[in-house]
Task: structure prediction
Amino acid sequence: MGKRYFYGFNIVAAGFFIQAAGGGALATYGIFFNFIQGDFGWERATISGATSVTFLVMGTAGIICGRVTDRIGPRLIMTVAGLVLGSGYLLMSALTSPVQLYIAMGILVGLGMSTQDVPTLSTIARWFVRRRGMMSGIVKVGTGFGQVAFPLVAGALIAAFGWRNAYLFIGFAVLAMVVVAAQVLRRDPGSMGLRPDGEVAVPGSERRVQEEGLEYRVAVRTRQFWLICVANFLMVYCLVTMLVHLVPHAVDMGITVGRAGLLVSIMGGVSMAARLGMGTAADRIGARRAFLVCFIVLLVGFLWLRSATAMWMLVLYAAADGFARGGSFAVISPMVAELFGTRAHGSLFGIVNFAGTVGGALGPLVAGRTFDLHQSYATVFVLLVVFAAVGILVTLFLKPIVKPQG
Result:
């Protein structure tokens, strides 16, 4: 008799669609940026500041989501998140003031996005051990797919129906995708009488593997935990800054909004391959080494970006950014499991994710304010080079403090 189908693959598929919806919709903000500025005349710091609120809310709520996921699982919390996330984009279609922008994009989208990584990737970490990196990578390919598809769709909808109607479509699409996919999720294989990776269950042993590792209170007192928080802060600071400001920078160079929007799709396309490739590589070389490779590629990309003067040069930067983006987002959850185990993975990953969202909140805001002061991104790019270099050094000091699982 053939091997029974493993329900964990359903978890992966659901995570893929959740990531595609949330990550794809968020990636369109740079496409809408110039249209919002053109209609209202707001400063770039004001518009980019909304994403700063998004990431702060996302990270803060993500800590709570991690604790809830550890206790009751992801299905209910992801259902509520889908409703809130979709509502945020629907409200963006009726935008009239900065206050409404910060409520819709900052608070509602932030709350909805707080469940994108922590519940989904923590659930993957519990369902898979030997193939944890690969399966995390497949889930994160969903974000890359969304970053390719949603900006292209958004651009076409804006051209045909205007940016407000485009946001209406995005809101309904995100709401439906997340809520439906959430119904598939289950906390862990033990809750269904299964074991990670589809291995044959031994009576009474279902929860042993998933609970290996450090307890929450022990892990947060280690130097390694705070080093991984710093590393993720630096990585996400750099990546989100460019997600928001690459298109405006390209437009400043004289490139049309339509062509500049293709850069976001290139980032998403390359990131899909990187998420799967680096996720799989993490299973072989370790998640920490894979994360280090991503930082090195990102640094090279920023050095190139400083001298980029043409579209083809921005395309090469977008490819480097996509590699670092996809790879780092795919391996950060496995890296937490690699360092500390999965006993308190949701809670620990929630804090690591929060550190990243603080970086994501500060990056676009600092870049927007710097541009408003100097009418140039030159200083911003220098800071990004420094942050990427520091991130490499921090990652080099990360060492596992639990025995490998499996």
Summary: The chain has one domain: 8-192+209-396. The two ends are 26 Å apart (CA to CA). Confidence is low (pLDDT under 50) at residues 203-210.
